[in-house]
Amino acid sequence: MLLTRLADVSREVAATSARSRKIALLAELFRDAEPDDVPVVIPYLAGRLPQGRLGVGWKVLSRPVAPADAPSLTVREVDARLTELGKVSGTGSQAERARLVGELMGEATAEEQRFLLGLITGEVRQGALDAVAVEGLAEATGAPSPDVRRAVMLAGSLQTVAQALLTDGPTALDRFRLTVGRPVLPMLAHTASSVTEAIGKLGACAVEEKLDGIRVQVHRDGDSVRIYTRTLDDITDRLPELTSAALELRGSRFVLDGEVIAFDDTGRPRSFQETAGRVGSRVDVATAARAVPVSPVFFDALSVDDRDLLDLPFTERHAELARLVPEPMRVRRAVVSGPEDLPAAEEFLKETLLRGHEGVVVKSLDAPYSAGRRGASWLKVKPVHTLDLVILAAEWGHGRRTGKLSNLHLGARTADGGFAMLGKTFKGMTDAMLTWQTERLKELAVEDTGWGVTVRPELVVEIAYDGLQRSTRYPAGVTLRFARVVRYREDKRPEEADTVETLLAAHPEVRP
DNA sequence: TTCCGACAGTGGGGTCGCAAT
DNA sequence: ATTGCGACCCCACTATCGGAA
């Protein structure tokens, strides 16, 4: 199959907003693909490269290359050349990769170049990623879409399932079962604004402490242990403590879900930055492990002794977990039977925060483990802080925000009467707010910078954030974590905005 | 007919590690 | 040695479609 066909379909998919039409277009293309094209066509149309990482980014791709007049590239040829490109490493490799990319781009038409660029940078923006591709695949093969989706979650990969399905038909789905050693996409949580709201929605539930670490899925098969992240990357070699911990547990074949986190000598959690730095260290793991030892804290069991627990209610999965994992290696929790237990749940949240954790996750007791989905049966509750800050500049948006000033630079007042930038945000604004702020900020503009505008520091905005963290990038030495706009405060003057001093006083645990 | 779950899009900061300077 | 870049951790929120209620 020619690449140009994919580029055309991708453009058509992007042009329609109806999800049903997107699915129909993808299904038609999947049906036309030859068996050998399948492992390439499916991920390409889901907006992803089968190679994952290439070591090529914007810097290399932003160099313009004259396009070819007529299409000639086939999808298989493109895939083969990208695979080769990904293997190039060593001195001079960056230049060599850039050369190979340029060569490939030179053989592509303008339309194909756009499509390849989107694929490599992960920004296809056609309004259809894995989930829509799964529907298209189901339509193309006549397999029920829930079954296809489940197989993808269990395989942890769309293209594996696609190839099996298009080669052997719907019966191939039976092959995808939960297997020790093969990671499953983890279940995710929604957000609730309070414990009251969460318990109101879920009824009988477990309230569990939420640790600010790295999500891990631990597989043990006898003496062999493998550890996977949320995106199913294998990080076993970076966490020798976890392998030892898993080998000490009573079972010999299991899959557990949990969090890995670093504690200090007093048992309080260390900052997320410290845990993440440790888990990210790959070169000298032994030294990193001595400096920042980490511990696993489990909260779910997906498989024990070859028994698939995914469809069991949480109560039963947790009973299996408790049988296998002793107390300190399990997340603390309180079980409540409904709104009448609210005081106990509130008390548990308060204690959890005092112990230095992020918040709680409220989980329905009868819900199954919905792999890969942001199911409504897990609700996280975290305290939210707010500040009144002043807008210092704004950047032009991309995609559907093209032409709108989108990303705001936020400043707090300093002792000398000026403003110190604390970070940026593009979150929380409605389309109406985007339109309004674009006009308002243009009025306040003092300089057009190309990427946006700098403005007179007069517009006050209320910002919600999850906490402070240390920063080497911003002048106050701190930055806001997950800042988002709550509302504009036109009733406030910039002199009434919050100061760096009060911000630091509110977070004594963070020393810039 | 209205409501709501699922999805895609729009990007944020930090850290590590490799390659280039 | 330092800097730039890519990959991968953490993540919030809004708009929209289309099936459920």
UniProtKB/TrEMBL annotation:
GO biological process, one term: cell division
Classification via Gene3D superfamilies: DNA ligase, ATP-dependent, N-terminal domain, DNA ligase/mRNA capping enzyme, Nucleic acid-binding proteins
Molecular function per GO: ATP binding; DNA binding; DNA ligase (ATP) activity; metal ion binding
Source species, domain of life: Bacteria
Enzyme Commission code(s) on record: 6.5.1.1
Cofactor: Mg(2+)
Keywords: ATP-binding, Cell cycle, Cell division, DNA damage, DNA recombination, DNA repair, DNA replication, Ligase, Magnesium, Metal-binding, Nucleotide-binding
Cross-referenced InterPro entries: ATP-dep_DNA_ligase, DNA_ligae_ATP-dep_bac/arc, DNA_ligase_ATP-dep, DNA_ligase_ATP-dep_C, DNA_ligase_ATP-dep_cent, DNA_ligase_ATP-dep_CS, DNA_ligase_ATP-dep_N, DNA_ligase_N_sf
Statement: the UniProt record of this protein carries the keyword Signal: no
Residues that, per the record, bind ATP: E208, R215, R230, E259, F299, R374, K380
Active site: K210
Reactions it catalyzes: ATP + (deoxyribonucleotide)n-3'-hydroxyl + 5'-phospho-(deoxyribonucleotide)m = (deoxyribonucleotide)n+m + AMP + diphosphate
Residues covered by the ATP-dependent DNA ligase family profile domain: 287-414
Keyword presence, Ubl conjugation: no
Family under the similarity heading: Belongs to the ATP-dependent DNA ligase family.
Biological role: DNA ligase that seals nicks in double-stranded DNA during DNA replication, DNA recombination and DNA repair.
NCBIfam families recorded: dnl1 (TIGR00574), PRK03180.1 (NF002868)
Protein name (database record): Probable DNA ligase
Native source species: Streptomyces aurantiogriseus
Gene: lig
